[in-house]
Amino acid sequence: MAEPRQNGVNAAQVEYWNSATSEKWVDNQERLDRQLSLVTDRLFDYAAIQPGERIIDVGCGTGASALRAAQATGPDGHVLGIDISHAMLDLARKRAAGMANLTLEIADGQIHEFAAGAHDVLQSRFGVMFFQDPTAAFANLLTALRPGGRLSFVCWATMADNPWFTISRNAAIRHLGEPEPTPPRAPGPTAFAETAYVMEILNGAGFVDATVNTETCQLVGADTAADTAAFSINVGPASRILKLHQPSAETVAAIYADVEAELGAYLTNDGIRVPARLNFVTARRSAP
Ligand SMILES: C[S@@+](CC[C@H](N)C(=O)[O-])C[C@H]1O[C@@H](n2cnc3c(N)ncnc32)[C@H](O)[C@@H]1O
Question: Most buried of 90, 126, 167, 269, CB within 10 angstroms?
Answer without folding.
Answer: 167
